[in-house]
Specification:
InterPro entries: UCP020408 (IPR016772). Belongs to the UPF0751 family. This is DUF2325 domain-containing protein. The protein is mostly helical. The protein folds into three domains: 165 residues, no CATH class; 79 residues; 103 residues, Rossmann fold, CATH 3.40.50.10050. It has 15 helices and four strands. Helix 14 links the parallel strand 3 and strand 4. Helix 2 packs across helix 4. The chain starts with a helix and ends with a helix.
Length: 430
């Protein structure tokens, strides 16, 4: 009984001396008390590293499970041997920076503060090893560190369980998102295939249109060659056309003189009628009304005379342009000249369309008329400001040919068409 008591005292003495700093040298793994080996092996050394070190110590891979490896490592850490030396070397290398930081502690209080800071920061593995092996670590600090580590392990276990629950939820959400992504990818792939087919179809259309364009250009060149040959082969026809043009020009001059005489006669009649009305009418309101009626009547007659002159004049104007059933939109102009405009356009092979430029016709109708036209003639002298800018902006945006005519006469329209003919001839020659 006495020997047993002495043995117990000796064991307590050995345990006490194991926790007291023997010198300024840091303690080794086998210098620590047995109750510290479990948290050191379990927390400070990863399980995969522990299995590798154990295999290196025994000279081959071990078939033991994780718990058996853990218990065996704890048992081997109580004294110096091959495995404990490997564990000691790995711990020193793994936590060298933390050990270097703990060396700055010169008192037990400073060492305790470093440990508490490590707990607050959540980096306890290296701090636990550096604190236990520090020369100033006494029995009280060792027990406090072991208690703190015990509670941290419980908290870590609870955290791991919560993380597992969250991880499973994340896995389910990830599977749901993966299925959703797969559906989106399938829809995207199908959409890309449809677009690829559409692009292929458009490319075939482009090739076909290019072939048609080349064919049309060849036909144009062939017709231009034939036209030049006809001009060279029939000079007498050209001379006859010139003579006819001179005759028509002389006739036009005679009609101009006749028109001037008619206009002068109309003005004289207007003056005489106005004078007669002033003599015969007794009431001022009736006088003004009659004067207005008379003026409107005479102005209408004058306009009809002018329109008749232009109608006869435009037939004498030579136009080399051939519109070849193209749609020609005339925007603006005098209402009395619309028939003359139509006759002139149809005489050179075009299809005539008219819009009054926003005076009576709808502005919405102007957009559809512009879209359907191949050539636009804008009568700038008889058109609203809004319609003028809409025509100009539309033709600039679409690249459609537009001729601006300041004078709303038929001759001005003919000169505009002749300008188009000259520009077309210049383009073909180039």
């Amino acid at each position: 009984m006495c020997e047993k008591h002495e043995s117990s005292q000796q064991k307590q003495h050995n345990s006490a001396t194991a926790t007291k700093p023997l010198s300024s040298r840091r303690r080794r793994l086998w210098d620590l008390s047995r109750e510290t080996h479990c948290p050191v092996i379990g927390v400070c050394i990863p399980l995969a590293v522990l299995r590798r070190l154990l295999g290196k110590a025994v000279g081959g891979a071990t078939q033991a499970d994780d718990y058996e490896i853990h218990v065996g490592a704890i048992a081997e850490s109580s004294y110096r041997n091959r495995l404990s030396e490997l564990l000691q070397e790995d711990l020193e290398q793994r936590y060298s920076l933390t050990i270097k930081r703990f060396r700055t502690a010169k008192t037990v209080g400073a060492l305790t503060q470093l440990w508490l800071d490590a707990i607050y920061q959540g980096d306890v593995a290296g701090a636990f090893w550096a604190g236990l092996t520090h020369p100033l670590c006494d029995l009280g600090l060792q027990e406090g560190m072991c208690r703190d580590m015990h509670m941290l392990q419980h908290q870590a276990g609870a955290t791991v369980r919560a993380d597992i629950v969250r991880f499973n939820a994340v896995l389910e959400e990830n599977a749901l998102l993966a299925r959703e992504i797969a559906r989106h990818q399938e829809r995207h792939t199908r959409h890309m295939q449809e677009k690829a087919q559409e692009i292929e179809k458009l490319q075939r259309n482009i090739v076909q249109l290019r072939a048609e364009c080349i064919g049309k250009e060849s036909i144009i060149a062939y017709l231009n060659t034939d036209l030049q040959a006809l001009k060279n082969a029939a000079p007498e026809r050209v001379q006859a056309e010139k003579n006819s043009h001179q005759q028509l020009q002389q006739k036009l001059e005679r009609m101009g003189v006749r028109q001037a005489e008619l206009e002068q006669k109309i003005r004289e009649l207007k003056h005489k009628l106005t004078y007669k009305l002033k003599q015969t009418n007794k009431h001022g309101s009736l006088e003004v009304t009659n004067e207005n009626v008379l003026e409107n009547t005479l102005e209408s007659a004058l306009e009809n005379v002018t329109s008749a002159k232009e109608f006869n004049h435009h037939r004498t104007i030579p136009i080399t342009l051939q519109l070849q059933q193209k749609n020609v939109l005339c925007v603006g102009g005098r209402s009395g000249n619309v028939a003359s405009y139509r006759d002139l356009i149809e005489r050179v092979g075009g299809r005539f369309a008219h819009h009054d430029g926003g005076m009576e016709d709808s502005q919405n109708l102007l957009d559809s008329s512009l879209a359907a036209a191949d050539l636009v003639i804008c009568q700038t002298g008889c058109i609203s400001h809004n319609a003028y800018w809409r025509v100009k902006e539309f033709c600039k945006r679409t690249g459609k040919r537009c001729v601006f005519v300041e004078n709303p006469s038929v001759s001005s329209l003919a000169r505009g068409l002749e300008q188009v003919s000259e520009e077309a001839t210049t383009t073909v020659d180039k």
